[in-house]
Amino acid sequence: MNVQPKVQLSVQVGTEEDVATVVQYANSRNLSFYAVSRGHALTKTVARFDGIEIDLRNLDGIQIAPDNKTVHLQGGVYSYNVIRDLWDQGFVTGTGGCTCVSVIGPALGGGHGLQQGQHGLTMDHFVHLNVVLANGTAVSVNKTSNPDLWWAMRGAGHNFGIVTSWDAKIWEENFKTYFVRTYEFEGSALEPVIDEVNRMGWDGSLDPVWLASFGLFTMNTSVSETEPTISWTFLYNGAKEDAVPLLAPFDALEPVSVQDNTTTYRTINDLVGGAIDGWLCEANKTHILGTANLQNYNVTTSRAIYDLYTEKIRQHPELGETRVLHESYAVQGVTGFADEDSAYSQRDEHLLTYFDTRFDTTDDALISFAEEWRDQTVALWYQGQPDRTPTTYVNYAVGYESTESLYGHDAWRLERLRALKREYDPSNKFSWYNPIVPVGEQ
Length: 442
What we know:
This protein is an alpha+beta fold. The chain has three domains: about 5-55, Uridine Diphospho-n-acetylenolpyruvylglucosamine Reductase, domain 2; about 60-170, Uridine Diphospho-n-acetylenolpyruvylglucosamine Reductase, domain 3 (2-Layer Sandwich); about 180-265 and about 285-385, Vanillyl-alcohol Oxidase, Chain A, domain 3 (3-Layer(aba) Sandwich). Helices cover about 25% and strands about 25% of the residues. It is built from 13 helices and 17 strands. The protein has helices at about 15-30, 80-90, 105-110, 115-120, 145-155, 190-200, 240-245, 250, 300-315, 330-335, 365-385, 405, 410-425; strands spanning about 5-10, 30-35, 50-55, 60-65, 70-75, 90, 125-130, 140, 160-170, 170, 180-185, 210-220, 230-235, 255-265, 285-295, 325-330, 350-360. It has a seven-stranded antiparallel sheet with strand order 14-11-13-12-16-17-15, with helices on one face. It has a five-stranded antiparallel sheet with strand order 4-5-9-7-8. Strands 1-3-2 form a three-stranded parallel sheet, covered by helices on one side. The radius of gyration is 21 Å and the shape is globular. Pfam families: BBE, FAD_binding_4. Belongs to the oxygen-dependent FAD-linked oxidoreductase family. One of its GO terms (molecular function) is FAD binding. This is Putative fad binding domain-containing protein.
């Protein structure tokens, strides 16, 4: 989908105080408002918006505290600048892996990233938030100031306010180099590859010396013109000579290519598709998306998904840019936080999967074909874990998922979120991004 909200007026704020002023003005004119940091929302729910856009891009301050324990970040900063600025001063913090995307946007829904095995999700780095509420009031939010909002903003923050700035934990960068290896395999290797990935422990038991792994089904005509290639990338916290013996099982599976890189944290995301000018960051593209959270990779359904890709691409080779992504991180830093301490409900969901086909077209028949392919792929992922209730990472959701899937199946959690919505946003002003309360239902 190519999501286009209807922006009547865009206000590029110059100070944090301007955000409250714009919200108050919009309310006085009974106009809707929507804060945008980098504009990478892919959910169709934002297409319902019609009103004033609050552009946060000029709020780009990054300031490390004198005690070197936290950094003060403004609401318009994005991963590219934060990663580089902190690295140059010897520190890291939680961000996403796609460097063109804001830090705060994904963090409000959890925020997966390379630091999570050691230190938790991006939202787990929060120390203090400065928030503008739906009525235009600016408030401080932390463990002792507005503690109910502190709970809600971490995991469901898009529903409650605009973060104009925040303080986040930072960590001394102890690893000066990182090792990245990418394998490419033909389709015949799928079963042993998936078996070895599962055996490594990406289902929650992996040593956090591994940052992440990313598996991909996509067309690479230099390997095969008729079937997708399987690529799998591993990111290691340290030197090549320490990582290579641990990857020996994959060497034995006869990859068609192996690419090694040694890099710093400053540029590591560039090697896994997250470069600021990379494929993931191109604007104004039509995407058909689908996603599912998993506990492990089911070998049988992985084969079915691969074979489905082969079948679909045979029918429509113009969809050759389709990517079926398997996204895995070390999780010890995530599971170390109590489930009930925040609105985030998915600490026990270890793996992310993502279907994305991208093209430039207005052909309704082709769009319908891609949507059917998406639906079939997502259904197969869930078929591979029939004993688990489906859940969806809110930052990957595209607007057709249930509220329970996004925010939790526990009745107490949804009841608390809805009660807080009635208290802090009774008119449902914050309802454009995968909302707890859909537009018109307040």
